[in-house]
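Q: For a teaching session next week I want to show students how multiple molecules come together into a single three-dimensional assembly. I've collected the sequence lines for a complex. Could you give me the predicted C-alpha cells for the whole thing so I can convert them for display?
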Amino acid sequence: MSGDSLSFPLPLTRFEADSCEATNLYRELRKPLLRYLVCLGLSADEAQDVVQDAFLSLHRHLASDGSQENIRSWLFRVAHNGARNRQHSYDRRFGKPLDPDLDSMAEGATPEQVVLEKEKFHHLGKAILLLTESERECLLLRAGGLRYREIAEVLEIPTSTVGDTVDRAIKKLAEKCNV
Amino acid sequence: MCDFSGRLVAWMDREVPDNEAADVELHVRDCSECRRRVDAYEEVSRAFVAYCDAAIGEKTRRRLPRWVPVLLSSAAAAAVLLLVFQPATVKQIPVQSRVADAAPAVVVETETAPRPAKKVHRRPVIAPTKTPSANWALAEPSIQIAIPVEAMFPPGAVPEGITFIADLSVAADGSVQGLRLQQ
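A: Of course. Below is the structure for the complete assembly, covering every listed component.
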C-alpha cells in the first residue's frame, strides 16, 4: 500500500542537497578557478591547494546554512583572497610571458601554423604584461565566465568600473597585438 | 571614431541593457568599422583564454617531471607486492628448538612435559632447509595500511570522481616511511 511509505524530512536531506550542489559547482568551476589562480602567478601546486581550500570553505558555508546567492562569485572571491594570502606567489603574477612549447599546440596543426600560433602567444604575453593589475584580474575573471556584476563582487569594485576596465583592457590587447 | 565604439565590448559580453543592445546590433550591422572592431575584440578574447589555458598546461607539465609517474607507479607496485605477499603475523619459532635439540625422538612422548599446553598452539618445527616459507617468517613486523576517507576529510567534502595518487616511501627493510596523497 502506497500510503504506508512515510515521507518525512531526514536530517541528511539538506546535507545531501548541499553536497550535490557543491559537486556540481566543483565540476563547473574547478578549471576556471585553476586558470584564474595560475594566471595570477600561483604555481600549479599552490593553485590546487587554494582551489581545494575554497571548496572546503564552500562546504562549510553551505553546511552552516550560508546564503547560496551569487555562489560563483563567492567561490572566486574566496580563491582570490587565498591567492592574496600567498603574497609571495601573488607578486610573481605574469612575471614573464609564457613560452608554450610546440606540444601544447592543437594536434593536427601544420608546423607553420604552430610557429604562427607561438608567435601570436608571444606578442599577447608581452601585451598582457602592459595591462594594469586590475585590468588583468578583470579579464581573467571574464575568461572564467563571470558576469560583470560577479567580477565586481569578487574584486569589490563597482560594476560600472568593471565594464570600463574590461573595455579598456580588450582595446589595449587588440592594439598591441595588431588584431 | 564611432559613437558606439565605447559599448562594443559590453555588447559582446551581453552586458548592455536590452533596449540599448538592439540599437548597438542595428548599428554594427551597418557599420563596417564597428564590425571589424567586434571581430578583433572577439579574436583577442579567444586568444586570451587560449593563452591562460596554455599557462595551466605549461605549469602542470613543470609540476610533474616525466620520471615522477614512473617512480610513483613503482612505489605503488612495491607496496602492493608487500601487502600481497606479507605472511600472516606468526610468532617466530626458533629454528633450533630446545625441545627438538633436547629430545627430537621423544617429542611425542612429552605429554608430561612441564609446558604441554603451549605445544598445542605451536606449529611443528620445520627445518629451514626443507621449505622456503621459513624465510618469510623473518619478514616481521607485518604492515597494515588503512586510511578511511572519513578520517581525512569531513563527510561530503570530497566530491565524487576525485582520484588521489598515493606516494608511498618504502625503506630498504620493507617498512613504510611516509605516505603522501596528491590529487
